Amino acid sequence: MRASLEELSGQSFLYVSGGHRGQDVLRHVLASSAWRPGLIAVVSDSVPLGAAAECDGVPVVAVPTEHTPDAWWAMAAHGIKGVLAVGVPPDLLEELSQKAFPLGVYGLQAGLLPGTAGPAALNWALIRGLTETGTSLVRYTKDGDGWLLVSQLPCRIEDGETAGTLCAKLSAASADLWARHWPGIARNDVALRPAGTWIRELGRRPEDGAIRWAEHSAASLDRWIRALARPYPGAFLRFGGRRIWVHGVERDTPEGAAVDAPTLTAVSARGLTLDFPDGRIRISDLSLDDGSEIPGHLLAALAERVGARLSSLHTGQKVLVVAAHPDDEVLGIGGTMIRHFKSGDEIRAAIVCSAESIRYREGEHDQPGDTQRASHYLGAQSIGLGFADQRLDRGSNLELIQALERQIQEFQPHVIYTHWWGDVNADHARVAEAVDVAARPYSAPGLKSIYAFETPSSTEWTASARGRAFAPNVFVDISEELDRKLDAMRCYESELRPPPHPRSLRSLQQRAAYWGSVANMPAAEALALLRTRQ
């Protein structure tokens, strides 16, 4: 039954469900007689009440995401003593953990902590071919991102396991684990132990299901599709300007096929047959964005491509981002990179100063790891060019120019993004000059456009009297990409600063809003078009 906050007084324990995982665990909890919550809160702007609506006799309240702070305060004030949160975003857990719940805030995390956790731990376990995962019962600490371990329950990943079957197993295991420890939790008598550093898995969104043929073998594509199958959105390939979603996969031959690159071998109404050097697979259960079947004319067009390399089914633009330092690519052009990725373009980020930074003490951060994690959110392949940080202004720029020429000749980009030549940071200015030389029309015949981006805390800090102020003339709408850009920036935790510093998350949001207001958009990135060929 539905409940208002005024009706909650006296309820003892709250179940907070976020997303589909929260609903799945709740369904198994309700099927057991071991424990029933005093109240259920569904936190989502899109996921229906689902299992919560079927819980006769337990009050249910739907909490829109933006109303969660007020809701938690009200629930604490009405006598809720403890919380079990499943599938709830970390920022909302932080709000929960700061409230006065005497019995604490608990969570059921997919994964065997302290290894991997987070919103996509189950998917990553399948993608990486792990043979075991599990569920972990934790009690969150006051900062919401810290935790103490109560107990764990391992779960074997069987051959051919899909996201759907593994999700069901973990949901049942989670409900069982909670039931075992509920008596002690109710008495506030639970043995807690620290369990090391929490390694949070990268979040995933539907666009991350894109199949990049050059990165896959038959074995890895088999895992990729199984990991993203229902109840998740699925993997997808691009053809004819459409996304074709894939939920079914079957390994046909384990031995290698007589091909040197992934090849389309057969097309039928039941699916596609694909040959790889390490074997053959068949993909099935295909649909378009709206869930409809693949129309006959699209299947016919695919049939005409039998024998072609899979990489030729979709040819988007090639985009090269040349950034002086790790994090510059996110700060300046992150939202635009994500737009390119969502359009199916191939993106390469060349990080010039990828050698050990002089800005950090040894062990202070994991620069290569930060860059790779950020690349996941940007949809890019990141390559380090190995130059030393803050030393590009020493001597000739010839070595850097030659390194960029090699990148351009090998990658053959259609679009290049790089720094504004007037940045106060000397490395940025040298990179901009080197790109200008390396990307001369005769050196890069396929190049159509070069853009310069601003870098917060560098572009705006150059002295105005020098006449090098940033002069944008192109504005890219990143309203749908801003949150993901901020996720990418969070990967560079050591580079973030508190507000009002330009490299704070709040300042990045405000900057996007400002440029958006200039161009009549909710949020934008500003660029200067340096050269274009039509």
Characterization of the model:
With 534 residues, this protein is α/β, with parallel strands linked by helices. Helices cover 30% and strands 23% of the residues. The chain starts with 12 loop residues before the first strand and ends with a strand. Helix 4 runs antiparallel to helix 6. The protein has helices at residues 19-31, 68-77, 90-97, 121-127, 163-186, 218-228, 296-303, 328-342, 367-378, 398-411, 426-438, 482-490, 505-518, and strands at 13-18, 39-43, 60-63, 82-86, 104-110, 132-140, 147-156, 235-239, 242-253, 263-268, 271-276, 279-287, 318-323, 346-351, 381-384, 415-419, 449-453, 474-477, 524-532. The strands form 3 sheets. The protein has a 7-stranded mixed β-sheet, with helices on both faces.
By helix and strand content, what is the structural category? alpha/beta
CATH architecture of the largest domain: 3-Layer(aba) Sandwich
Biggest sheet: strand arrangement: 3-2-1-4-5-6-7
Oligomer: single chain
Quantity of strands, as a count = 19
